[in-house]
Amino acid sequence: MWELRSIAFSRAVFAEFLATLLFVFFGLGSALNWPRALPSVLQIAMAFGLGIGTLVQALGHVSGAHINPAVTVACLVGCHVSFLRAAFYVAAQLLGAVAGAALLHEITPPDIRGDLAVNALSNNTTAGQAVTVELFLTLQLVLCIFASTDERRGDNLGTPALSIGFSVALGHLLGIHYTGCSMNPARSLAPAVVTGKFDDHWVMVKPPAFPPPQKPSPCRAGTERGQSSANPSPPPPAPRSSRRARGSSLGLPSRVCCGTLHFHIRPRGS
């Protein structure tokens, strides 16, 4: 509960709200059917991918820029965030998504906004097929996030923001033809709430696909990024067995476990 008294925690929750609001606003806006400029699949995919990449680069150091309840739940299961932080993140993401969709709805002419790009089954896709597609789309996204932010990697081949943005764009290039491409329960919920269209909505709100666990480490409270250095956290107890010692040497710092999964974006050559 100490997180609730932290200014850094409040900033992180607000960053998730703002990031999801902007992501939904620009993403759904790119899919509106303007008469003289009908959107293409490539345009929509690039808009969602560029949106995620931009927001990860801008706010990743504040909250980790999950911008997706499925990603937050995956990080919770992977012991990268605490349960309290995950709950606040998901609430902020859902509220931010609805706010972004509502804002887009109000500033768009009625004959243009239509159903506000709500996710729905198309091209005779069955519910089972849609669930399978969405699971695979979310799997590759979560796998990309975990892999590109793994501090044990010795290579420096680019920025996580770029690879995560490409992952989102890749998912849309395939998923749009099946479900309109969700990959994000907040993105699906927002236009459904604003327009009142919940047909087949349960397909989009599926359990997140989890990548293979990266390391067998116990959960322990991490050090908050904004915590004062005058009162550092006590060091973790010494390992009781060689197995624990080997597990702790695999790499993930204690401040990440049950803390915030931050995207470490280092300049090339550092």
Total number of helices: 10
CATH superfamily: Glycerol uptake facilitator protein
Please tell me the overall pLDDT: 80
What fraction strand? Answer: under 5%
| Estimated structural class | mainly alpha
Calculate Rg over CA atoms: 19 Å
What's the β-strand tally?
0
Just give the CATH class: Mainly Alpha
Summarize the biggest pleated sheet. Answer: none
Total separate domains: 1
Q: CATH topology, what is it called?
A: Glycerol uptake facilitator protein
Shape: globular
Low-confidence stretches: 212-233, 239-270
End-to-end C-alpha gap:
36 Å
Q: What is the H/E order? A: HHHHHHHHHH
Describe this structure in words.
Helix 1 crosses helix 8. The chain has one domain: Glycerol uptake facilitator protein (Up-down Bundle), CATH 1.20.1080.10. The chain starts with 6 loop residues before the first helix and ends in a 22-residue tail after the last helix. It has ten helices and no strands. It has 270 residues and is mostly helical. It has helices at residues 7-30, 41-63, 69-77, 83-107, 110-113, 127-148, 160-179, 185-195, 201-204, 242-248. One of its GO terms (cellular component) is apical plasma membrane. Belongs to the MIP/aquaporin (TC 1.A.8) family. One of its GO terms (molecular function) is water channel activity. InterPro entries: Aquaporin-like, Aquaporin_transptr, MIP, MIP_CS.
Provide the descriptors you would attach to this structure in a database record.
270 residues; mainly alpha; Glycerol uptake facilitator protein; globular; disordered C terminus; golgi apparatus; Aquaporin-2
